[in-house]
Design a protein that fits this description.
Length: 90
C-alpha cells in the first residue's frame, strides 16, 4: 500500500475515533485495481440509518481537516467521494 494512502486512512481513523470513541472505528484503504484509493470505514455502535444521515457531515469534516479524498464520477459527471461508512464489521 502506498504511504500516502496509508497516511490518509490513518488520518480518517483518528478523526472518526475522536467522534465515535477509540476502538470503535476500523478503517481500510483499498490499493488494488479500480478500487484504488477507496477508504472503507466500519463503526461500532451506530446503525446504517444513522450513518447515512451523518455521512454528508462526516465527509465535510474529513475535507475540512485537510484530508484529501479520492473521487468517483457518476453518469452526469456528478462527483462522489470514494469513501464508505458501514456499521461494525461482522
Amino acid at each position: 500500500m502506498s504511504v500516502e494512502l496509508k497516511q490518509r486512512a490513518a488520518a480518517v481513523k483518528r478523526l472518526l475515533e475522536a467522534k465515535f470513541g477509540k476502538g470503535k472505528v476500523s478503517v481500510r484503504a483499498e490499493q488494488r485495481g479500480t478500487a484504488y484509493g477507496w477508504i472503507n470505514c466500519w463503526i461500532t455502535g451506530v446503525s446504517m440509518q444513522q450513518l447515512r444521515l451523518r455521512e454528508p457531515a462526516l465527509i465535510r469534516e474529513i475535507e475540512a481537516a485537510g484530508i484529501e479524498l479520492s473521487y468517483r464520477y457518476g453518469d452526469a459527471s456528478e462527483k462522489y467521494p470514494a469513501i464508505t461508512f458501514q456499521p461494525e464489521r461482522w
